[in-house]
Every structure is written in structure tokens, then in C-alpha cells.
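B., you asked whether I could sanity-check this one before it goes into the benchmark set. Here's the sequence:
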Amino acid sequence: MQRFWMVIFLLVSFTFGCQSSGETDQVEQAEKKPKPLYVSYEKFDDIAPLFNKNNDTTYVINFWATWCKPCVEELPYFEDLYAAYSDKKVKIILVSLDFPNQIESKFIPFLEERQLGPDIALLLDGDANTWIDRVNPEWGGAIPVTLVYKNEASTFHSTQFASFDELEEIVKEIL
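And here's what the prediction gave me:
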């Protein structure tokens, strides 16, 4: 009889142990769910609210593309900034201007290979002449360019960053 109860106890323990372990695995998987590679915006108006946030966060918004050599060369500086300021109220967003016909062939493989930390936005609005001035009237259309702002304070950098220190210096001015 004692053996019978021991077998029952083991079966019940194993059954409930597996269920709770399975539930734990599901919760852990949900918590580890990877962020999407990018968020796509068809029109500038869809992303425009990003340029007018009025809160205690500093926004670093870089316009780039995979086909732009200077853009790709400075991406590690944004990765370093992302790592250095991950515990601060700094939001780094890389806005890609990649061509719509190269999303599958170039843009997505680039993101999968690089596994960039900052948020990636893909802006598909090819009519840049209608929205460039809305980002900054100083912008002539060339990339890379970076806008750093917090509330009313802002700075616009229209050339490639030469170093992480140069990028960080601009961010510190706005913090």
C-alpha cells in the first residue's frame, strides 16, 4: 500500500511539475520575445509625431541607408551610444531611407546580420522634398544626418560622425 501511494505521489508531482515548468517556459519565451527588426512607415506623416515629443527623454534620430557608406561606417557609434545610455532616458532611432525595391534583398539581410540595438524605422515615403524641411530646414537631403532633441532644445548634425566621442558630445549638449 505504501508503494501505491508513493507511485501516486510521484505521478502527481511529475504531472504538476511538468505543467508548471511548461508554463514557466511559455512565460520565459514571451519575455524573451525578440523585438521586431524594424517598423515600416509608408508616409512621413506616420512617423512625424516622433519629431515632436515633449517629455523628459532625449531623442537621437539618425537618417541612414544600407547603400550609404558613411552611414554604415558610423552605425557602430550609435550602437555604442545605445549601450552607454541604455539606463538613461535616451531613445535612439535609426530611420532607414532604403529603397522599397531593396527591402528584401538588402535591407532585411543587413539588419539580420548586424542585429542593431537601437530601434529601426523604415521610411518608405520617397517624396523627400515634401518632408525634409519638416525634419530640419537646414537639411539639404544628403545622408547621414542626425537630429538630437529634448523638448525645445535640439541640434542637427548634417555630416558623418568621425567618432563615438563626437556623437556623444552632441547628445550631452541636449541631455
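One thing to flag: The chain has six helices and six strands. Otherwise nothing jumped out at me.
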